[in-house]
Specification:
Blueprint: H1 2-24, H2 27-35, E1 50-54, E2 57-61, E3 65-69, H3 73-76, E4 84-85, E5 93-98, E6 103-112, E7 119-129, E8 136-137, H4 141-144, E9 153-157, E10 173-178, E11 184-190, E12 193-197, E13 202-204, E14 212-216, E15 219-223, E16 228-230, E17 235-237, E18 244-248, E19 255-258, E20 264-269, E21 273-278, E22 281-286, H5 304-307, E23 314-317, E24 329-333, E25 350-354, E26 361-363
Parallel strand pairs: 13-15
Antiparallel strand pairs: 1-2, 2-3, 3-4, 5-6, 6-7, 7-8, 9-10, 10-11, 11-12, 14-15, 16-17, 17-18, 18-19, 20-21, 21-22, 23-24, 24-25, 25-26
Length: 372
Amino acid sequence: MKKMHKILARALTLFAVISPLLICGCHDNIYWMIEQEVRREEGISGDVRAIIPFKGNLYCANNHLYKKTISPSTSTGSFNGQWQKVSTGLKNIITIAADDTYMYCYTIEWQESSSDSVNVAGARTLYRSTDGSSWTPIDLTSVTGSTTTSYAMTIFDNQVGNGRLTSSPGRVAYARILNSSNAYAIYKLSGGTLSAVTPSSVVSGSATEAVKAVHTSSGDVFSKDTALAANNYYIYYSVSKDSHLYYKTGSGTASSVDLGGGSIYSIACTANYLILGTSNGIARVAIDSNGVPASSLSSFSNNAQTMVTSMCPLIYVTDSSINEGSGDEYAAMTISGYISSSPDTFKEVGLYAYYPGRGVWNRDGTSDKSGN
């Protein structure tokens, strides 16, 4: 029934938009509007939690691991369906991160609760790999007192290598782990070694709450919120996942604009827009030549907002130095809360992509659809 309501709502919206055009006889505009209703293709499903570059490939994780060449579609001429499922021998890959030498992931072993027969998180294992296929466990004894841990963990990196920053010190990976002293700490990952670090530049939360980092000219900046990005002008971030977009220089005072487009979960920079992942789907806000964001959101010139319509926790662009719409762009969509209260279905949850040669957003997956 909700699916029917969704289709009906889109049809009525489309009719409302094209009715004036029918009266005016603007046929070209009518055809353009109809073409914006793009058939949704198959793609990688589930919660896509990370997309990262590593040694000439892009990798994404959603319990499984996928890869594709990092070469842009404007060079390869290839669009949707280029991902390959990687045989890792691992189960339940939660997320991934990388430095210049190693890719890292951690897995969770789910266990059935004896009290209410639901799955609960058990052992968490941290791994490293030099090629994305062969994985070696990282001994956590020095941090948690055992080789694996049942304590909370997350990993992330400083986002170097997406077309903006590739210079020293390069890509750095971090882990936030509840250690044997029952205290959270941040660790730098270097192959099989974990070194405790204390972030000195934090835009949201405290140093030990960090779950996201971005590299700037003055060093790595950290945040307890997942929406964090930077260009050559400003650091952009959200606080407590509200609709305010904050921006500041490394040492300056933060300014903010309330974009009113839902809670902000992810930010990706392009030369002329910030692409946002929000609780209401994908959005964008223009930035001027000095990086200052506009006071309100701008509609996309493509079908982004009719395709990515629910909570969007992840936005990734392969080259942040070019204009929005000129390079390959990715988004992950999920459903927050009960499926019964959402107009979307689980079939629509997963990875989406925009390729300039196609000019539209759609689901993105493997070529043979076996990994979708």
